[in-house]
Design a protein that fits this description.
By secondary structure, the chain is an alpha+beta fold. It has one domain (1-158, 224-504). The protein is built from eleven helices and 20 strands. Strands 5, 6, 7, 8, 15, 16 and 17 form a seven-stranded antiparallel β-sheet that branches. The chain starts with 23 loop residues before the first strand and ends in a 25-residue tail after the last strand. InterPro entries: DUF4331.
Length: 521
């Protein structure tokens, strides 16, 4: 979910990597407002438009895996210590290995662009069908339920300032010609930051090259790829300089997509109990095709820590393919997993919990001081540092105290519209959102992030809100996941440009009905 150019094996930001149909982009999931066939859930997996929008790669196999579950219940005296975090992770591991048995939809196309869609091991029965691409099709499940399907080209539904995000993490391949083999020239050893750093000529905006990072790249300089300043940059009026522009880097771009609208009674025999639908996507490429060469056909334990267990579960069809990309929760892969090939684990990402703690500590030392400099409260403990700091952690026990509040704080919602039934649904917390790496759709909500993901959610900015202190207030309004989309906030702080970090709307309006994502350009 929201992991364009991930993993590195298909990361076209590198100067020597081509666009690949194996590059998953987003996963959306929310309850359908159409109750014609009873309660239904909408799920959409999007990926690179290769060979082109509306034409899928015949060497690819896409999986959408689903696991209905009950809503997480919390105890009044919950343990928020490191031990409590590890206990939660162990519980997730046990649930996904022993209790939940995910079922799946598989999609592939033949050379004539006929799509084969297979529904495997669902409580409502298994079945398969061959359908036309680029049109809405209604299928009838063994139990008589109607399932809507669309497989084909659409407009890219992710609207964000991608270059701004890469400036915030000083990611050289977005701005310079960097091959994927130069691993030390990816995230440079410069503090992460939401504000330009004084003297950071490697990444500060350059008026002489307004398209720099927006399609135009420079040659990587031979000077040291570091920064030695000690303050944020300010203009003559004393304003900080935002690394974000608010422009939509995905405007006018197309994707391919698999979009489903599935009755809840097909997913579970007990829809009154299983009110959560966990979904994640996977891309697999045919081994005989010789594509995505950086990922081996037969991964070793170091390349996929869970591969021995998973390989034993593969059926004959999957044995002819290799896993490339997984997609579940927004930014779990792109921001937290750092696009590493070996970290494409989907719901199995409980292995990455220690890394996530250390990574959030690293990000926090950059974003936390940036937020504080604007007079905004942050949940990250940065010892009142006046400027962003480049700091990494080798030990979880050192990073955890810095991110403890961030991990366990409840994320406030802008209002009560997300909970139309006014049920006692607990607000979600980062620790629950990113482990496991799934899009967790709450059927008693509107499915807006983090209770799913609707296309209109500005999820990139909502991710940044994790670093805010949700107990603080702005003009009498408690901080919430959309507070950084509030123009009044930016008008009140000393920053230029005075704009939310990402666009508030997509380049094309979303559709009110299936397939919801706009038609391609």
């Amino acid at each position: 979910m929201a992991d364009h150019n991930d993993p590195n094996a298909v990361n076209t930001i590198f100067s020597d990597v081509d666009v690949s149909a194996a590059d998953l982009y987003d996963i959306f999931g929310f309850p359908s407002a159409d109750h014609t066939h009873g309660e239904s859930v909408v799920m959409a997996l999007t990926f690179a438009a290769v060979p082109k929008a509306g034409e899928l790669d015949a060497d690819m196999l896409y999986r959408m895996r689903m696991a209905p579950d009950t809503r997480i219940q919390r105890t009044p005296k919950e343990d928020h210590s490191l031990e409590g975090l590890l206990t939660y992770v162990d519980g997730v591991k046990d649930k996904y290995e022993s209790i939940l048995h995910p079922f799946e939809v598989r999609v592939s196309v033949d050379v004539n662009q006929k799509a084969s869609i297979r529904f495997i091991n669902f409580p409502g029965g298994s079945f398969s069908q061959t359908i036309d691409t680029n049109q809405v099709t209604e299928l009838t499940a063994p139990g008589g339920q109607t399932i809507k399907v669309y497989i084909g080209g659409r407009d890219d539904a992710f609207f964000n300032d991608l270059p701004g995000f890469f400036r915030s993490i000083n990611y050289a391949p977005q701005f310079y010609h960097v091959p994927h083999t130069m691993t030390d020239a990816r995230e440079l050893k410069i503090p992460k930051t939401l504000l330009e750093l004084e003297g950071n000529d490697l990444f500060n905006s350059d008026p002489a090259f307004p398209d720099w990072g927006h399609g135009f790249k420079k040659d990587l300089p031979v000077t040291p790829l570091t920064w030695s300043g000690d303050r944020f940059k300010k203009d003559a009026e004393g304003n900080y300089q935002f690394v974000y522009s608010g422009k939509d880097a995905q405007a006018g771009k197309n994707i391919n997509a698999i979009i489903l609208e599935v009755p809840l009674t097909y997913l579970t025999a007990t829809p009154e109990v299983h009110r959560i639908v966990n979904v994640w996507g996977e891309s697999w490429v045919r081994k005989a095709a010789g594509k995505v060469e950086d990922i081996p056909d037969h991964p070793l334990l170091l390349e996929h820590p869970w591969s021995f267990v998973e390989q034993a579960k593969l059926d004959e069809e999957l044995k002819a393919y290799k896993l490339v990309d997984t997609d579940g929760q927004a930014f779990a892969d792109a921001a937290l997993s750092e696009r590493e090939n070996s970290r494409q684990m989907g719901a199995n990402n409980f292995w990455l919990a220690p890394h996530f703690v250390k990574r959030l500590g690293h990000l926090g030392w950059g974003f936390g001081p940036s937020i504080s400099a604007l007079g905004v409260a942050t949940a990250f403990d940065h010892d009142n540092s006046p400027v962003s700091v480049y700091k990494t952690y080798d030990l979880v026990v050192e990073a955890f105290p810095r991110v403890q509040k961030l991990l366990f704080q409840e994320l406030n919602m802008p209002d009560d519209s997300w909970n139309p039934k006014k049920l006692n649904i607990p607000l979600r917390r980062p620790v629950e959102i990113f482990i496991p790496n799934v899009c967790s759709i709450d059927m008693d909500t509107t499915g807006t992030w983090p209770f799913g993901r609707r296309p209109e959610d500005q999820v990139a900015t909502r991710f940044l809100s994790l670093f805010l202190d949700m107990t603080a207030s702005f003009k009498g309004i408690r901080y919430h996941v959309d507070i950084m989309n509030n123009q009044a906030l930016w008008d009140a702080v000393p920053i230029q440009p005075k704009t939310p970090p990402n666009p508030l709307q997509n380049d094309k309006a979303f559709l009110p009905d299936f397939p919801y994502i706009a038609a391609p350009w």
